[in-house]
Design goal:
alpha/beta; 541 residues; 17 helices; 3 domains; 6-stranded mixed β-sheet; single chain; 22% strand; 4-stranded antiparallel β-sheet
C-alpha cells in the first residue's frame, strides 16, 4: 500500500472517533438489479468498490444518493442549477423492459456527534416509492466520470468551435481549485477559468494556461479536462461524494494524486466518499479497510472487505495476480511447501494467491533471507530452506530436519505408505517395492525418478501425491501452523513483515550483491505459471 501522508492524516483523524457529524453507516439493497438484501458497510471515510462490470457497483452509489434529501450543489463555472432534489426513481425508473416492484433500500445514518444511528428505508411496494419524507438532509454530490465526454463530443458544443465566436464572460478558478489542480497534474497554471462564448451562455469551456500556452477544452487531453471540471465541483462540508469510475482517462500518477487530493478534502471537510474503480493504483492508495469487492457467484452477490489490489485484479482477470512470493530451493521443496499450505492452512485456496520462485542453492536462499530480514522485498515474501540446512536470518526452515525427499519417504515408510498405492492406482506391493528400492540409492535426489520409472508414472505426479499424503497424515498441526501462519497473516494483512528471531551472530554472513549471484533459470520460468501447471523441467503442461 502506498502510505501517503494525506491518507495517514485522514486515518488518524477518523480513528479518534470524533468529527463526521453526518455519517452513513450502511445501505442494504433488495429487489433491485438482482440484489437480494446484501448490505454495504462504510467503515472508512473513503470507500472504494471494485468488481467486474455488471456486478452492481453503480447500484450502490445510486442507492446511497437516494437515501438523503439533497439538491445538487451549484457548480462553480456553470450558470444553471438543478432545483429538483434526488429521488430513487431517477436511478431506478420503470421502463418498457423493467418494472420495479417490491424493492427496498434500507439504511442507517448518524445526524450529529454523539448521537445513535437511525435506521430508515425507501420502499416501492407498488407504482410509487415511499419513505421520501423520512429522509435526513445531507448534501449529495454525484459525479459520473465514466460519462464525461471530450468537449468536442458533447451535445451542443460543436457549434462553439467556430472562430467567429468570442469569449463573453468567464469565471476564474479560485485559489483552492488551482492549487488542487496543480498538485494532481504537477503543472504550474498561470490561467484557469470556465469561459462562456457569445454563442451560448450556458455551456462553459475550461480554459487553462501553463508554460506560456493557453488552450481550451477543445485542445486539452480528456484527463486534464476531467480534472479541471472535477476541481470545479462544489463539495460542501459534511457532504457525501459519489464518484463512478474514478480512474477514467487518468494515468496511474494522476490516479494516485487524485486519491491523495480526495483524502485531504475528506479530512478537512469531514466528507464521506464512495467510489467505484477497476484500478489497482486507486486501491493501492487506500488502507485495506477502505476496499470492498463485489463478487458475483452462483448463489448471488458477496461483498468482501479488506481485499488487496492483487486479489481484486485476480478476481477480474484471466491471468493470475500474485500477492505473496515464496522462495524455495528446488521443485521438490516447492511441492512439499504447496502441499503443506493446501493441507494445513485455514484457507487452502491461499496457495493460488502465492507465487513460488526457485532460487537453486542454499547459499542463495540465505542471502535472500537476509534481504527478507532487512525488509528489502517490495511485497510480502518468505524464504524457505530445506530441513537439512541450519537456520538463517529471515528464513523459515521446512519441517523434518532433513532434505524433503528423505523426510517424506521415511515418514511414509514408517506408516506403511498410507494411501499412496490407491491414490496413484498401482498395486500396493509394487509401490512398496519401488519406493523401498529407491531409498537404497545413495543420492536422495534420484529416489523419486527411480520409483516413478518402476511404477510407470510421472515423477511429478508421484511426488505430489507423496507430499499430499505426508502433509495430511504425518505432519503435526503445530509444524503445519509454523509454516502456514506467516503466509496467511501476510495475505490477510495481519502482518506486513515477518521477521523470525535472528540466528547467532556468527551464522549471519555478509550478503553478496544479488547481481553477483545467479538464481536458476527454473526459478525465473515459474513466474507466470500457476504452481500446479508446471512440469518437472519448469515448462507449462
Amino acid at each position: 500500500m502506498a502510505d501517503s501522508k494525506e491518507m495517514r492524516r485522514l486515518t488518524g483523524k477518523w480513528a479518534t472517533g470524533g468529527g463526521w457529524p453526518k455519517r452513513l453507516e450502511w445501505v442494504q439493497i433488495d429487489g433491485l438489479r438482482g440484489w437480494h438484501g446484501e448490505r454495504f458497510e462504510l467503515p472508512y471515510p473513503i470507500m472504494a468498490i471494485v468488481g467486474e462490470n455488471g456486478v452492481g457497483k453503480s447500484t450502490i452509489l445510486q442507492a446511497i444518493a437516494s437515501v438523503y434529501k439533497s439538491k445538487p450543489p451549484k457548480k462553480q463555472g456553470r450558470k444553471r442549477q438543478a432545483k429538483r432534489p434526488i429521488f430513487a426513481s431517477d436511478f431506478f425508473p420503470d421502463t418498457a423492459w423493467e418494472k420495479i416492484k417490491d424493492a427496498t433500500i434500507r439504511y442507517s445514518v448518524r445526524q450529529g456527534n454523539n448521537t445513535p444511528p437511525t435506521e430508515g428505508s425507501l420502499r416501492k411496494p407498488g407504482p410509487r416509492w415511499r419513505g421520501y419524507k423520512d429522509r435526513c438532509m445531507r448534501q449529495v454530490v454525484y459525479i459520473d466520470l465514466s460519462r464525461i465526454q471530450p468537449i468536442s463530443a458533447r451535445v451542443g458544443y460543436n457549434v462553439l468551435a467556430k472562430p467567429q465566436w468570442k469569449e463573453k464572460t468567464f469565471i476564474p478558478f479560485d485559489d483552492d481549485s488551482i492549487q488542487r489542480l496543480r498538485q494532481i497534474t504537477g503543472r504550474e497554471y498561470e490561467l484557469a477559468k470556465m469561459a462562456y462564448t457569445d454563442a451560448d451562455e450556458f455551456r462553459p469551456v475550461p480554459v487553462l494556461g501553463h508554460s506560456g500556452n493557453i488552450y481550451s477544452g477543445f485542445h486539452q487531453g480528456a484527463g486534464e479536462t476531467i480534472l479541471a471540471e472535477l476541481t470545479q465541483v462544489e463539495i460542501p462540508e459534511h457532504s457525501i461524494v459519489l464518484i463512478d469510475e474514478i480512474e477514467s482517462s487518468l494515468h496511474p500518477r494522476f490516479q494516485r494524486r487524485l486519491m491523495r487530493d480526495l483524502a485531504e478534502l475528506a479530512r478537512l471537510r469531514e466528507l464521506q466518499i464512495v467510489l467505484t474503480t477497476h484500478s489497482p493504483f486507486v486501491l493501492d492508495e487506500l488502507p485495506h479497510e477502505a476496499r470492498a469487492q463485489i463478487i458475483q457467484g452462483a448463489n448471488g452477490r458477496m461483498i468482501v472487505y479488506g481485499i488487496t489490489p492483487e486479489y481484486a485484479m485476480a478476481k477480474m482477470d484471466d491471468v493470475a495476480q500474485y500477492e505473496c512470493d515464496l522462495y524455495v530451493e528446488d521443485e521438490r521443496a516447492e511441492r512439499m511447501l504447496l502441499e503443506i499450505v493446501v493441507e494445513k492452512a485455514t484457507k487452502p485456496e491461499s496457495v493460488l494467491r502465492c507465487r513460488t520462485i526457485k532460487y537453486g542453492t542454499a547459499s542463495v536462499g540465505q542471502s535472500l533471507g537476509i534481504m527478507k530480514y532487512q525488509d528489502k522485498f517490495p511485497r510480502p515474501s518468505f524464504v524457505f530452506l530445506d530441513g537439512d540446512q541450519e537456520g538463517s536470518a529471515g528464513c523459515i526452515v521446512l519441517p523434518g530436519e532433513d532434505s524433503p525427499e528423505r523426510v517424506v519417504f521415511e515418514a511414509l515408510r514408517g506408516n506403511n505408505w498410507l494411501n499412496l498405492a490407491s491414490r496413484i492406482k498401482r498395486l500396493f506391493p509394487d509401490v512398496a517395492d519401488a519406493c523401498t528400492q529407491a531409498m537404497q540409492l545413495p543420492e536422495h535426489h534420484e529416489w523419486i525418478r527411480y520409483a516413478a520409472n518402476k511404477l510407470v508414472i510421472g515423477s511429478d505426479t508421484l511426488w505430489q501425491v507423496m507430499c499430499s499424503e505426508w502433509a495430511a497424515h504425518c505432519l503435526s498441526a503445530s509444524e503445519g501452523k509454523r509454516i502456514t501462519q506467516p503466509i496467511e497473516d501476510a495475505l490477510n494483512k495481519v502482518l506486513t513483515t515477518f521477521v523470525p528471531p535472528p540466528p547467532p551472530v556468527a551464522s549471519v554472513r555478509a550478503i553478496e550483491p544479488l547481481t553477483q549471484r545467479k538464481i536458476t533459470a527454473s526459478g525465473a520460468s515459474s513466474e507466470n505459471v500457476l504452481p500446479f501447471e508446471r512440469s518437472e523441467n519448469g515448462a507449462q503442461e
